[in-house]
């Protein structure tokens, strides 16, 4: 990210240059020197900026779907939004979440591997309180879940994966399925500690209670579909495919379209003087012998050769030959 100086910092820099405290030549020299960037192998960069932007767009939709779902389930004000999408080692994610939290471990076929939806205890217990008839306030002291509470949490969050499936439809058809619910991060081992993950952080507000919902996606899980996270792929995949009924209706309209059919007797060249002197009874010689087939055009394209005649006292022309593609005169 490029640092942007404030107006005060700009004024201080100009003052230092004018007073001689800083030398402009030295600044230029430092700028021209080769800069070395430190690379931490424990924080391997596996997701490009394009991937991060695509994940952000996908999970902004996920946040909107979750807002609608939880608002209907809890019958209270719910607001969920994406605050950050970042990549970091799996071990760092485990150390950043509470020791007692709600970990919804799930799989999403056809992807191989496990992911986790981590819900801060404040949010989870506010949901429980609301589902059990309360006002949606999280308790001051977080205790272990009872069997009833565990069952309720599993049911509530099992249906959130429908929202995740809908959000990912522009990239791939997923079939998320809850595998387990844990409360202790130390008992959860998705990947090796140094494996890079994409962490999508969702700021969540339920009534007056706030907290975070984190979606952890290991790189090894979505590596097979990384190419589909490019901006170009998302743009083209979001184009709506026409329905079968629309295609058939279009075909019917094309079949009913009117096209002019022109049978040319021949051509002749006249000067302006000759044209102005034409009168009734004059004969104009054409460039075709009488026994030669006439050119038949559809629009401006030569398509057939045929001979003139009559059918039931009406002028007609019989098609004798079909012009193949590429024949000279086709693009006249």
UniProtKB/TrEMBL annotation:
Matching Pfam families: FliM, FliMN_C
Cellular compartment(s): Bacterial flagellum basal body; Cell membrane
Known Gene3D superfamilies for this protein? CheC-like, SpoA-like
Q: Where is the Flagellar motor switch protein FliN-like C-terminal domain?
A: 252-323
Any keyword Plastid? Answer: no
Keywords, in A-Z order: Bacterial flagellum, Cell membrane, Cell projection, Chemotaxis, Cilium, Flagellar rotation, Flagellum, Membrane
For whether the record's keyword set contains Flavoprotein, the answer is no
Q: Which NCBIfam families match?
A: fliM_switch
Q: Which family does it belong to?
A: Belongs to the FliM family.
UniProt protein name: Flagellar motor switch protein FliM
Q: What is the lineage of its organism?
A: Bacteria, Bacillati, Bacillota, Bacilli, Bacillales
Q: Which gene encodes it?
A: fliM
């Amino acid at each position: 990210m490029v640092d942007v100086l404030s107006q005060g910092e700009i004024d201080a820099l100009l003052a230092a240059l004018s007073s001689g405290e800083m030398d402009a030549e030295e600044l230029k020299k430092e700028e021209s020197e080769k800069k070395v960037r430190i690379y931490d192998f424990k924080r391997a960069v596996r997701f490009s900026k394009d991937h991060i932007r695509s994940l952000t767009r996908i999970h902004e939709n996920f946040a909107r779907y979750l807002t609608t779902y939880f608002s209907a389930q809890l019958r209270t004000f719910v607001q969920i939004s994406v605050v950050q999408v970042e990549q970091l080692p799996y071990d760092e994610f485990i150390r950043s979440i509470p020791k007692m939290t709600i970990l919804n471990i799930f799989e999403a076929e056809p992807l191989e591997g496990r992911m986790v939806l981590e819900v801060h205890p404040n949010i989870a217990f506010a949901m429980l309180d609301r589902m059990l008839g309360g006002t949606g306030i999280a308790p001051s002291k977080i205790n272990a879940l009872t069997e009833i509470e565990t069952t309720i949490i599993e049911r509530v969050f099992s249906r959130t994966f429908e929202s995740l499936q809908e959000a990912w439809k522009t990239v791939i058809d997923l079939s998320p399925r809850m595998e387990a619910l844990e409360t202790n991060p130390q008992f959860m081992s998705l990947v090796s500690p140094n494996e890079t993950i994409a962490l999508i952080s969702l700021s969540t507000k339920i009534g007056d209670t706030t907290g975070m919902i984190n979606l952890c996606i290991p790189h090894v899980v979505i590596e097979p579909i990384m190419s589909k996270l490019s901006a170009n792929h998302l743009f083209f995949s979001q184009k709506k495919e026409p329905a079968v009924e629309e295609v058939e209706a279009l075909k019917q309209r094309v079949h009913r379209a009117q096209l002019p059919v022109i049978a040319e007797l021949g051509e002749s060249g006249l000067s302006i003087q000759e044209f102005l002197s034409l009168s009734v009874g004059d004969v104009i010689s054409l460039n075709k012998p009488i026994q030669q087939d006439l050119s038949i055009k559809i629009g401006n394209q030569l398509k057939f050769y045929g001979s003139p005649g009559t059918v039931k006292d009406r002028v007609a022309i019989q098609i004798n030959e079909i012009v193949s593609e590429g024949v000279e005169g086709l693009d006249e």
